[in-house]
Amino acid sequence: MVVFSLIFLTKLHLDYSLGDRLFEVLGVSPWTSKEQSGLHITALLGFVLLIIGVVGTVRHYRSKYPKILSRIIIGCFAFTFIYPILIEKIMFLAKHNASGINSIDVKDGRCNFQTVETVVKANCTFTFYNYGKEKSIVVKPIMKNNDADIEIEERTVSISPHSRVNLGTQFEGKQRNGTGFSGTLNQISIEIMVNGNRKRFDE
Predict the structure, then answer these.
(1) Nearest alpha carbon to residue 75 among 54, 99, 100, 96
(2) Which of 3, 45, 52, 48 is CA-nearest to residue 26?
């Protein structure tokens, strides 16, 4: 129970947990409100399972191992540190010879927008995981809650094979509704294209 709850709860190198993905596969948001706000259901459920597991394990083994609680606590901290690193290494190893859209993951994206009349310039930073052999991809930032109706043009960027890539680049686009939009968005969707295949990553 303890190990399962830690796997369910601990964030991977891509900043989501197995519990988050299970909820999404079931068609349920892991958050009680939109845009990853409100209560984090994965965390609440994971902590409940963890507490149940720890209490049960301590009750069962305390007579034989008096220091088991402190050992479990240390083990939990070690697991949350090592597990994301281990999964990242496994992904690079498993997909070392891969190519195409499924050899790329995106961790996060952030864009600073400025407009002059209807022309939009977006200075964006992304973190890509290129597990395989791809050397370039097509990237397009997509705004959420796009009341200004801003369309950003895609562009091709170079990335190093078999590496984590922190990339900063500028995009251009048009604002169709109103003028003068500006600001920084930490949660945007990112669409990538490799060899004609597209995939969207929602933050």
Answers:
(1) 54
(2) 45
